[in-house]
Design goal:
The protein is an alpha+beta fold. It has 2 domains: 2-73, Glutaredoxin; 88-191, Glutathione S-transferase Yfyf (Class Pi), Chain A, domain 2, CATH 1.20.1050.10. 52% of the residues lie in helices and 6% in strands. It has 8 helices and 4 strands. A hairpin with a 5-residue loop joins strand 3 (53-55) and strand 4 (61-62). The longest helix has 27 residues, at 88-114. 31% of the residues are buried.
């Protein structure tokens, strides 16, 4: 299989982390991709022009990160306990993943906003995203308490999201007023799938 990825994409990090967690690394060829350079061949894989995307052994593409993560979690060659679980626990995990992805949507939007010419930036949208991120961060600790024991996709998504805030938005100081969340993040961060996928500048 092929993984189209970027070293700074938090959505890609989720997929790279689950590949490590499920011990599927030897099944993938990693192809670093800059979607901002309008790579025409990649658009044939994902017409949305977004990463991550994977190409399966049969040549079929799969995107975006929640779909890819669910596929990899169910892969017959994957190791370990399922990250999505079954029954009611699955919906709790998926809600946590959606919360984390929602934070990332705002956080990535803020990064893109800074790359626009000054007169095209929207202080209104930055303020809106900042408020949304704060509300969602406050909900993370209650959601952690609802997740099943062990390590789930909810835990993985939360860790990747908090890591991205450290990487791109340290000024948001997400740890302030959230000591339990900060303590959890420090505890989970050494896990190999997270330690091995820390975001870095290209």
């Amino acid at each position: 299989m092929k993984l189209y990825w970027s070293p700074t994409s938090p959505y890609t990090r989720k997929v790279r982390a689950i590949i490590i967690e499920k011990e599927l690394s030897d099944r993938f060829e990693h192809i670093q991709t800059n979607v901002w350079s309008d790579p025409e061949p990649f658009f044939k894989i994902n017409p949305l022009g977004k990463i991550p995307a994977i190409v399966l052994d049969d040549g079929q593409p799969l995107y975006d990160s929640p779909a890819i993560c669910a596929y990899l979690d169910a892969h017959p060659e994957g190791k370990g306990e399922p990250l999505y679980r079954t029954g009611d626990a699955r919906w709790t995990i998926m809600r946590a993943e959606a919360l984390a992805d929602g934070i990332l949507d705002g956080a990535v939007g803020m990064v893109v906003e800074t790359r626009k010419p000054q007169d095209e930036r929207s202080p209104f949208m930055v303020a809106r995203w900042t408020t949304q991120i704060g509300r969602a961060l406050d909900q993370m600790t209650p959601e952690l308490a609802k997740l099943p024991e062990g390590f789930t996709m909810g835990h993985l998504a939360f860790a990747c999201t908090l890591g991205y805030l450290d990487f791109r938005h340290p000024h948001l100081a997400w740890r302030e007023g959230r000591p339990d969340l900060a303590a959890w993040f420090e505890q989970v961060s050494p896990r190999p799938c997270l330690a091995g996928t820390m975001p870095r500048l290209a």
